Structures are given as C-alpha cells and as structure tokens.
Amino acid sequence: MTTDAPNDRPRILYSCYHSRSREGEQFVPEHIFSYQVAGTMMVNDGEQEFANQPGDFRFMRRNRLLKFSKVPPENGGDFKSISIRFSQDMLRNFSLTHAYKVDGPAFDGTILKLESNPHFKAFINSLLPYLETEAPDPELMEHKVTEALMLLLKTNPELKNTLFDFSEPGKIDLEAFMNRNFHFNVGLNRFAYLTGRSLATFKRDFEKAFHTSPSKWLQQRRLREAHYLIKEKGAAPSTIYMDLGFEDLSHFSFAFKKMYGVAPSRV
DNA sequence: GCAACAGCCTACTGCGCGTT
DNA sequence: AACGCGCAGTAGGCTGTTGC
Questions:
Q1: Is residue A128 domain-shared with residue A55, that is, in the same domain?
Q2: What is the pTM of this model?
Q3: What pLDDT does residue A23 have?
Q4: Strand B: which residues 166-225 of A lie within 7 A (CB)?
Q5: Residues 6 or more apart from A211 whose CB is under 8 A from it?
Q6: Taking every annotated instance into account, which residue ranges of this chain make up the domain HTH araC/xylS-type (predicted)?
C-alpha cells in the first residue's frame, strides 16, 4: 500500500500564522486530533462547512479531501492551532500492545467535534510549553502523541472502531464520488485510491460511467460550475477559480474561453 | 483581469503479463 | 474470460512569466 505520510513531518504540528488568512486544500492521509488555540479554521469536505473556533477539539478522519481556510482573530494576533497526527504504524502497534479489537462501524464522516473536558485541556496546557520552544524533543513528542491517543480512547471509546480500522478504501460509486469531489485539485492517482481502484481500473470505470476521460470530464465539470457561478450568482472569476480546482487564473481564463468562446469576465 | 507562449509534466493509450 | 497491474511513448494540459 502507499503511505502518503512521510515520516519526516512532525507528529505534532503547531500552526502559527501571522495576521493572514491561508487557504488551500489537502488530502488527509492520517487521523488527526486537533485543537484550535486562536483564530478560526474553516474546513470544507465537499459537503459541509465546519468552523473550528478557539477552544474547539476536533477529530479528522483519514483518507478525506479537505479545503481549509485559516483566519486570524479579528482583533489582531496570530492564527494558532495544534494538530496531532496518528500514523498507521503507530496505531497498529498500539492496537496490538493493548489488544484493541474493532467491533462496530467506523465513523463515516470527515470531522467530529469532540466535547471539551478537563483532561483534554490539561493535556494541551502540558503540550504548549514544548511547542513554543524551537525544537521540541522528538522522543518526548512521541510520548505526547501516545498520551493524546489514550485520552481520545478514554473520552470517546467508540473511536477505536475508526482509529484501528486499517482497511483501504473500498470500491465505491464513482459517479456520486466524482460529482461530490470534482472541485478538489488532486491527481488521478488520489481519486483512484479514494474510490478503491487502481489507476487503470479507475480510468476504465470512469470511461464506462462518464463516456469520456477523467481529465476532460473534470475540466468540463469545473468550467460548467464556473459558468453557473459567474452567470447566475454574479461571482467574480478571480474569487472562484481556486475553489473549483484551478491553480492559475490565466489558465482558468484560457480554458473557459476555449469552452464557451468568451472570457469569464464577459459572460 | 486577460492573453500569449515556452517548457515541463501529467494523463492517455495500447500492450503484455499475471491473477481470479 | 474478466479483471488488475505496470510500463513506455506520446499528446496535450498546466504552470509560470511577461506584457497589456
């Protein structure tokens, strides 16, 4: 299997952005336990929009596509959040050591809001001093990740069915999945993996379902959406091209004109 | 905000081979 | 037979830059 999580990234990430909103999208390959320290994290999974406010604890499920926007506090200061990621290796070892067995369905959503409690708060308070030093000791951080996992299992025991579910994505309905996620700008490899297929099978199934190639369909679908947003909703090209999975405004404009014969600003 | 363009890189296609 | 995987060559899509 492909592990999309290089081990050189820190297990505990302290995000700190100075007075500026950062937007982007990402594939979440590992389960994440997060805490919002300051500012707001807006997250969209293609179906729902979630707002992580200061003091919120969240659990994010692995193998999901997310768009996020990091908004610093209105009254000034930095956006700050803590993300703790649980690698599959670490979870597998933990489940073996502690004899955890999956006995129910895994959490099917993307983001789970966790009730705040004194244990979580104490844990974050014990963690912050390490994170604010320049280079936290990696071994110590490993222990903190384990501590976070134990707390999570203690307060939300049902999460064991998700945390210790090591199965790969199963073959799912391609048409529904693509219509839900076409605006994520990720490679075909990723789409194939998330729909439980090899790249070759993904392309074959795609051709059967949509009678065109994935890249052509994706571009047309995104441009149709752009046309709708510009014409019906009065959206500006510069504000929507990224939301629709284009990385470059000039290319968006070029592709739009090729399909509709007019530049997006003249619709 | 849009157009043009060069160069890079990704996706498509076709094929052979292995597995179910 | 149907399905799944991997490879190589190639076309064309995308990015980054520049200029208006």
A1: yes
A2: 0.73
A3: 59
A4: 187-189, 200, 203, 207, 213-216
A5: none
A6: 172-267
